[in-house]
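Morning run. Coffee first, then this:
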Amino acid sequence: MSTQQEPASGSALEDKKKVFRLTGPIVLWWAWVVFAVVNLADLAIQGHDVTSVQIAFGLAAVTGVVYVCAFRPRVITDADGLTMLNPVREYRVPWPRVSEVYLGESVQIHCSATAPAAAKGKVLHSWALYSPRRSRLKAEVRGRRMDRGLASRPGNYTRMPVEAREAAKQHPAELMAREIQSLARRARERGAPDGPVVASWAWSSLVAVLVPALVLALVIAIT
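And here it is:
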């Protein structure tokens, strides 16, 4: 689990920007960056033919896909609402529009309509905060083992605070979903400003994927 929060103190903490994302995709991204850089350096030193150029643009195209699917997705919260970054779409949701947050195969944000006569509200699925059923079952099994004293270090576990023990039994995405729900509730209570849910295309993501792929296709076509 990975959340990033700007320094703050007291009740002002909930007004600060906070980033929700899982650790696995970040590790995958940086592992791929190292792999791509090493291979591009090798091509620059030893490769001086058309095949090397094709491989280089192929690496660039895959890097764009890994960036869009692994590194870019996240949920960002602030005083006024949340921003959900998916691979090629971006959503801005004011806190009063967040009616419910729950966990399926991913964290889902239920957004209410802006007016009684408006169309039915949206359900937004976070690409970043995924939670496969198998992973949740593993977390439950691990929690039961801890409760039975079968964990590898039961002494440390029994000395943990109750809140920490409960958190250890849950999937990170479930903890994040609950925190986002809590942030939304507190924001509504303090009168956060309302507004529509705004969706937009992530043009930088489309460029990162399509431009290297088109150049690769062009290079292959002309050689």
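The chain has one domain: 2-131+171-222. Good start to the day.
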